[in-house]
Amino acid sequence: MRMDRRQALTMLSGLAAAGLAGCGGEPPLRIAVVWSGWELSRFRDILDERNAVVYSAGDNIAALIRNPVARTAAPDVAIVPRGLVEDHAICTRLRTVSSKNDPPYWQELLRCGADGSIKGAWFKVAHKSLVWYRPEAVPDPPADWESWVRMCESRAASGHPPLAIGAADGWVLTDWFENVLAGLDRDTYRTLHEKTGDWSQESVREALRRLARLWSIENLFPGGGRRALITQFHDSILDVFRYGRADMVAASDFAWPVIAQYRSPGQAARRFRFPGPRGRPAPPVVAGGDAVVALRSSGDRGGRLVEKLTGDEGVSRLERWAAAGGFLSLNPRVQGYPPELQNLAQEVRGDIEFDLSDRLTGRLAGGNGQGLWRVLTELFAKVAVDGQHPDQVADSAVQALRVLSEAGEGS
C-alpha cells in the first residue's frame, strides 16, 4: 500500500518530535501499530516501556515497513495483521523471534522466508465465532444453522428485526462467510488461500447461498437492508444492546467493551457459538489476530521487547487489558477476563481455523471495496436492498470469486 506525501510528513513530524525523548542518549524504540482509538490507548497503558515511542500507522503500516520513507520513520517493532508476515519484502526485514507461548498451529502461521523461521509472536487474538444477544429476546439459543434461520424468519415476520449487522465494514461480512463455510467444508476452507484454491467448489456456492437466503429475509435488519449497508460494526452492537432495535449480532469477542460501555442499565448480554449445519460436527472457531514483529534494524532491543510483550514476564500487564475486554492472549497464564468472556481464550487455543480473508493474496485480498470484501458487499446489497433472487446472486458471486482467483498475483 502506498503512503502519500501528506501521510508521510504527518508521521515523520510526530516521530521527529518524539525522538528527542530518548533516555541516556539511547534513541527510543519506535513501535508502530495498526490500531487507533481505544486499542491504541490500552496498548500504551500496558506497555510500561519508558524509552519507547508508540504510534498508529493504520493501513500504511505495510508501506512503512517495506519501504520506510525515512530512517526515523521505520519502526523497530510493529504489531501487524498476520497477512503482512507473508509479504516477502516485509519478511526479509524481520528478525527470527521466540513464541514459546503460542500453540504449534499458531506458530506455523508466522513462518516465512527461505529458512521457514518464525518471524513473530502472537500478541492479541480474536474469537470470531460468536453471536451476542439479549436473553429476554432470545430465551432459547439455536442449536444449528437451520434452527437459527427459522428463528430469524419467525421474529422478522412478527414485526421485530432479529439481527443487526455492520455491513458497511466488509470484514464483518467475511466473518459471516468464513463461519458458514468452515462449518460446511473445512477441507475447502483450508485451501482457498492457496494459489490452487478452487472457488468454484460446491461448498463455496452453498455457503454463499445460505448467506444470501438469510440476508434476503424481509425485516431481518432494523431499518432494512439499505440501512444495514451503511451501518458500521460499532453501531450494529448498539442496535442490540443500547437501543433494542434487534435481538442478536454476530460479533467477535472485541465487541464486549462496546457492549459493556453502552448497554442499557441492567441489560444482560449473552453469547452462543456461531451455529453450524444440522447433523454435522461442531464447527471450528474462526480466529484472527495481530502479531508482534521485530525488524532486523532494531538489533537485540526489538527481540527483547517481543519477548517482554508475549512472554511470562508480561502477564500482569496483559491482564490489565484482558480485564477490560477486547483482548485475548494465547498465553495460558493470562487470566482475569470478564465473566462474559470466560473460556474464549482457551477456545482459540483449541480447534480453530484462521481468518481466511487475512490469508488471501492477489485480487482476492484487500479491504476498502476490494477482493472478497467487494464480492460479499455486492451480494449483500443485491439480496437485502435490491431484492434479487438469493440463489442467482450466490451463483454470480461464485463466478466473480473464480475470476478474481484466476487473475493472478500481478493483476
What's the arrangement of secondary structure elements?
Elements lengths: L4 H14 L10 E5 L3 H11 L4 E5 L4 H6 L10 E5 H4 L2 H4 L12 H5 L2 E2 L4 E2 L2 E7 L2 E4 L11 H13 L5 E2 L5 H15 L1 H6 L10 H14 L8 H5 L4 H9 L6 E3 L5 H7 L7 E4 L11 E10 L4 H12 L4 H10 L19 H4 L4 E3 L16 H14 L5 H17 L5
Parallel strand pairs: 1-2, 1-3, 8-9, 11-12
Antiparallel strand pairs: 3-11, 4-5, 6-11, 7-9, 7-10
Helix pairs in contact: 2-15, 8-10, 8-17, 10-18, 17-18
Notes on the protein architecture:
The protein has helices at residues 5-18, 37-47, 61-66, 82-85, 88-91, 104-108, 145-157, 170-184, 186-191, 202-215, 224-228, 233-241, 256-262, 299-310, 315-324, 344-347, 371-384, 390-406, and strands at residues 29-33, 52-56, 77-81, 111-112, 117-118, 121-127, 130-133, 163-164, 248-250, 270-273, 285-294, 352-354. It folds into two domains: 5-126 and 286-354, Periplasmic binding protein-like II (D-Maltodextrin-Binding Protein, domain 2), CATH 3.40.190.10; 130-283 and 360-406, Periplasmic binding protein-like II (D-Maltodextrin-Binding Protein, domain 2, 3-Layer(aba) Sandwich), CATH 3.40.190. The longest helix has 17 residues, at 390-406. The strands form three sheets. Strands 1, 2, 3, 6, 11 and 12 form a six-stranded mixed beta sheet that branches. 41% of the residues lie in helices and 13% in strands. The chain is of the alpha/beta class and 411 residues long. It is globular, with a radius of gyration of 22 Å. Helix 2 packs antiparallel against helix 15 (315-324).
